[in-house]
Amino acid sequence: MAHSSYPHLFEPLDLGFTQLKNRVLMGSMHTGLEEAKNGFEKMAAFYAERAKGGAGLIVTGGVSPNWQGWLKPFSIQMTKRSHAKKHRIITDAVHEAGGKICMQILHAGRYGYHPFSLAPSAIKAPINPFKPWKMSGRRIKLTIKDYAKSAQLAKEAGYDGVEIMGSEGYLINQFIVKHTNKRTDEWGGSYENRIKFPIEIAKAIREAVGKEFIIIFRLSMLDLIPNGSTWEEVVQLAKELEKAGVTIINTGIGWHEARVPTIVTSVPRAAFTWVTERMKKEVNIPLITTNRINMPETAEEILSSGQADMVSMARPFLADPEIINKSEQGREDEINTCIACNQACLDHVFKNITSSCLVNPRACHETELVAQPLKQAKNIAVVGAGPAGLAFSTEAARRGHQVTLFDASNEIGGQFNMAKQIPGKEEFYETLRYFKKQIELTGVKLQLDKKVSAEELKDFDEVVVATGVNPRDPKISGQDNDKVLSYIDVLKAHKPVGKKVAIIGAGGIGFDVAEYLTHPEEEDHDDLQAFFKEWGVDMDFEKRGGVEGKPIKIDAPREIIMLQRSEGKMGAKLGKTTGWVHRNSLRNRQVKMVTNIQYDKIDDKGLYITKDGKQELLEVDNIILCAGQLPEKSLFNELTEKGIKTHLIGGAFEAAELDAKKAIKQATELALEI
Which residues form the FAD/NAD(P)-binding domain (predicted)? Predict the structure, then answer.
């Protein structure tokens, strides 16, 4: 029976030999659990929770078909029976929870982070220090066999199917395009030769696993690199894959080295479904669409308008394992929405840390972050309703503590209320909506507009101080001039800002303020045309790879110059997978970035700085201070002096960068133990 609000989302998908209960695929994510100690037990808990939460079909992180295909040394591979045995715990757990799961087979090719990587041609990737070795004809044939064997072992391990990773610029993708395939033998040259590799893999796998086994092929439908595939070529390969026995085609968007944002917050929701929709007219097997689909309404709209047969959600399942059940039960306001920040998922994986989720620290830590049985319910006061205070209060109340949450402001959210106004960070509204609902459900007593004193807190059993941060004082001579504003004046008090602006400080907040001031106020975040135009994507797909080559320059409403004292690249501390997007977005808006300077003074004329021994005057209308933050600890110190049992969390504990990830994790850990 389909759910009335989302009839298409909850319609089963009949694949002939088996049926999927709904139209949601939990997309593949490498979490780092694959190589962790007791990783298989942890993955079993992780995937089973998502199967219970309603995912129609799950795809694992990438598993290599041989050691040359490793993502990094000693990563997970499926090459022998003993490997298959280890996976049983995962497939059993998922099946017990009523789910279905496919194993992704991924050969990294030139993206392999090790000296033994192989590729169709010996061309180094721009994002990898290692140059790959060129594969011999014999090695290519052996690799095709390895894929088939891997799939066969996955079947023995109890998987319902496999996904062949043919996109994002990994090995198969490297064979398909001329950009990376310069071969002159039967595997290179003409397009027919270049696509022989993926077709032979699909055929070999189908032969190895028989008819009744799901084969998903993740096809790069839009490479977003110069010299990528043309639309006609993509269609030709899709038709060949259908003939080769593939069950479902999943949409792959962009290579990892592409310079177009595809999954960060600033990408509008469902921005790439038009690509899948184009393919719908060409093949008869089901198609999955993907990227920035994080709420049921978006998914339903895609399916009901016939753009795809299934939607893939990957990170939304990190943020909320129960997203699908909540959607089906009409509890959408309880969904902990993925805000596409990448800070705890992708950024972690690139640093070899186990993945998690900024808004849900339990993700990938299901076996460790477990609520302890409550010995006695305590009466706890929490001061500060920013991310740390909210996470602690709702988690502690859920366990049975009585919690009163105080905040001096008239709304919950703390620094999130500033963040949500930054163009491309609108998803923070969802997080605040989620916490409002959790406060209601868990019975936290919320007291807003209440600046509470230490004296008023003395009757509580324990106090949790989450008072956040204060702006750091840069101590520049003349900074009390009327031209000077703090980031709080701009983002919270909405004080008027002139046409020429200098921003002091280039951390996360400096970048946010620059982003905020370079967009027109009435901008539509969901304007797909504008987004693709800015990043040079050709929506008519007349250019190879779908890219024009160069992003365009955008007329910003203000002239901005960003300044930092230290040398080195501006925004170096921003996330690995998002920093380049922020930098390029500001460059597109012609923001000047100047490093290695000292601030001399401010007067009515503007800001005086010294660079390379020369003083210069920046004649600006306003100077905005974004020079970092310091923890707000005064209440904590007062309570401690009074001997009241007190805990310090979030920005008040440590204010290096505005780190909501750390704040929410620390708050959750404390709430599960207290």
Answer: 379-646
